[in-house]
């Protein structure tokens, strides 16, 4: 798929409306992530939640990815209600975050945030499934639409970083909740689409995925690399704040990583290596990144290391999506992505909980655990590269 950094304009009004509405929703969806991911842990700390509880609470999105998320995505796909499910989950997420802002006790926050995550985390795979159906229907390119999400992440993180300078950290939750409300309202603009029909011989193709050793290697290696970001997502902003960096500097460090990710996505169509080798390179890059982060580097080195996010996250995503596209039939793509996200959720939630305990005792040495995970991912994918090169799924283009 092309990744040119503009909204593609197709030949008629319906496709233009679809493209604009989807790009706007991607922007609002990832704008929420851009405000939440760097600064939700900062808010938790500001209202008196200790490091161990922060690790547990911030693990909840990952836990919901292998509990509630597969159920929600499968139910929406079977009932042909993906677009409606996006809107329902968007409004439920906004309500949940507004309620969270009224609570400051760790056990109560844990319960409310758990419920909120159950409706929030399915939004991205549901949106991706909706997007791919529209891309196929209107003959559009996925990349230019998705890039608006990454750009909005940058804008959200920068805006929140600026607000940290003038707004007390204990009020950051209202900024996050406000963006969630905007996202819910934008979801109302998504256009209805016809659901794809499964070929009669492939009705149970989704269950076969879990017996495919190649598919399992893909989701395991991807989960380990992406899960190795758990300590970074949870404690990087806190560690940088304790090191004396201001809110704008912290936001800038996050933005450097996402800019590198956007650049990599833009140029990814030019990559000629097998997707499996891309993941190996990404995993090794992640291992080096975390080993350097464990040294608490000065700001100049930290800024350069942040650019490695393009490799540790972006290149992993490119390689994983390329392999998934080769092996998963189109009519069960949402469920295939659900399995991928569920596996990542298991790894990430476990890692986030462990990171809380390790960080509270050893600080940034927690990144050595992340290094080991990334190296394990590189080994799994290296050993599976021949299987993945020689046995693509026969129905990869289905749907």
Description:
By secondary structure, this protein is mainly α. The protein is built from 18 helices and no strands. The chain has helices spanning 13-46, 51-58, 60-65, 68-78, 82-100, 106-120, 123-138, 142-164, 172-187, 205-209, 213-227, 230-242, 247-267, 275-293, 299-306, 309-327, 333-362, 367-390. α4 (68-78) packs antiparallel against α17 (333-362). The radius of gyration is 20 Å and the shape is globular. The chain starts with 12 loop residues before the first helix and ends in a 9-residue tail after the last helix.
What keyword list fits this structure?
mainly alpha, disordered N terminus, Growth Hormone, Chain: A, 18 helices
Secondary structure topology:
Elements: H1 13-46, H2 51-58, H3 60-65, H4 68-78, H5 82-100, H6 106-120, H7 123-138, H8 142-164, H9 172-187, H10 205-209, H11 213-227, H12 230-242, H13 247-267, H14 275-293, H15 299-306, H16 309-327, H17 333-362, H18 367-390
Summarize the structure.
The chain has helices spanning 13-46, 51-58, 60-65, 68-78, 82-100, 106-120, 123-138, 142-164, 172-187, 205-209, 213-227, 230-242, 247-267, 275-293, 299-306, 309-327, 333-362, 367-390. The longest helix is centred in the first third of the chain and has 34 residues, at 13-46.
Please report the first level of CATH classification, the CATH class of the largest domain: Mainly Alpha
What integer is the average pLDDT? 84
From the alpha carbons, calculate the radius of gyration and give it in angstroms. Answer: 20 Å
Q: Which quaternary structure do these chains form?
A: single chain
Name of the CATH superfamily of the largest domain: MFS general substrate transporter like domains
Q: How does CATH name the architecture of the largest domain? A: Up-down Bundle
- Structural class, from helix and strand content? mainly alpha
Strand content: under 5%
Order of helices and strands: HHHHHHHHHHHHHHHHHH
